[in-house]
Automatic annotation (TrEMBL):
It holds the Pfam family FGE-sulfatase. PANTHER family: FORMYLGLYCINE-GENERATING ENZYME, SULFATASE MODIFYING FACTOR 1, 2. This is Sulfatase-modifying factor enzyme-like domain-containing protein. PROSITE patterns: PROKAR_LIPOPROTEIN. Transmembrane segments: none annotated. Residues 46-278 form the Sulfatase-modifying factor enzyme-like domain. InterPro entries: CTDL_fold, Sulfatase_Mod_Factor_Kinase, SUMF_dom, SUMF_sf. Gene3D superfamilies: paralog of FGE (formylglycine-generating enzyme). It comes from the Bacteria. GO terms for molecular function: formylglycine-generating oxidase activity. Coiled coil: none annotated.
Amino acid sequence: MNKKGLILGCSLGLLMGCDSQMDNSVTSQNTALQSEIAELITRSKSDMVFIEGGEFMMGDFGPLDKEKTGGLYYGIGDYGVRTIHKVRLKSYSLSRYQITFHDYLLYRKSKGLGNPYPIEHITAENRQDGFNSKFENKKWLKISTNTPESPRQSETPAFLPWEAAQEYCQWLGEQTGLPYSLPTEAQWEYAARNRGQFVLYPTDNGLFEPGRNVPSDEQQQQRSRLGGIDSFPVGSFPATPLGLYDMGYNKFEWVNDWFDPDYYSHSPEANPQGPAEAVFTDGYGGTGFSKVVRGYEYPTDLQMTFSRTKHKLWLEYTPEVFDGFYYVTARCAINSERPVN
C-alpha cells in the first residue's frame, strides 16, 4: 500500500471509530432517558391514592356545620360557593403529589422539547406588557434546578399553563393505558375534605397550624432566599388523612373545569364536569375564558377546602414556548372506579 492509501485508510479507521463512539454515546443517552421515563411511569402509578366515591354537599358548608358556626357561612362567599349543592362521585384516584419540575422537564425531554421560556423569545405583545423573556428564562432555570443550598429544588411544583398540565397528565395516560386527566373541581374538593367531610383546611388534622402542617411566613421567606421562590418541595409538610400532600398551600392548582361563577346553581348531581363551554368572565384572574383553580398561592387561614377562584387561559398556547409565567401547578387524577395499585 502506498503512503496516500495508508493515510486514507487510517483516516477512515479514525472516522469509523469516532462514529462508533458517537453511536454508543447516543445509545447510552437514549437508554438512560428511557430508564428515567420508566421510573417516572412506575412512580406515577404508585403515588396514586384511591378515593372511594360517595355523596357530599359541595360549597361553603357553614350553615350545615351548625355545631361550629351556629348555621352561619364561614364567610368565603366568592364565586358562588355559598350555593351548597349535592354531588355524587364515582370512585377515582388522585396523585398524592403535585407535578414537579423534575417530572415535567423529563416529560418535555421525552418529547424532544426544551426550555419553554427560551431567552431569545420576546414577542411584540410581551414587549408592550414589559415582559422580560431573559429574566423569566433565568427564573425558570433557577427554580427548577437543584443547587447545593436547595438540593430538592427540582421537586418543587412545576408552574404550568392549563394546557401543559393537561398534556402531561394525558401523556401519563398514553404511557400506562390508564384514563389520566386533571381532576374535576368536585373531585378536588371531595378529596381535600377527606371524602366530603366538614373539613375546613386540607391538612393532617383539619387545622391551620403554620410552621407545622403549613409553611409559616418565616419558612417562606427562608425558602425564597434559597430557591428564588417560596414554594416547597412536594411532601415537605404532613399529608391529609387520605395521604395527599400540599392540598391548598403550595401554589394554586388547575382543575379540569371551565370557570363559571354561577355553575353551582345548576351543577348536575352525578359526577359534575363543569360547564360544557367556556364562559367569558371579568375580574380577578384576568378578563377572558378561565379555568377553575383550587388552593392558593401562599398559606392563609382564609383559604378553605371549598374556596374557588379562576385563572384565564392564554389564547395562543403552544407546547414549545409559553408566553406567560404562571404560578399555578396541578396534580393528575385517574378516572377508574378500581384502584390502580
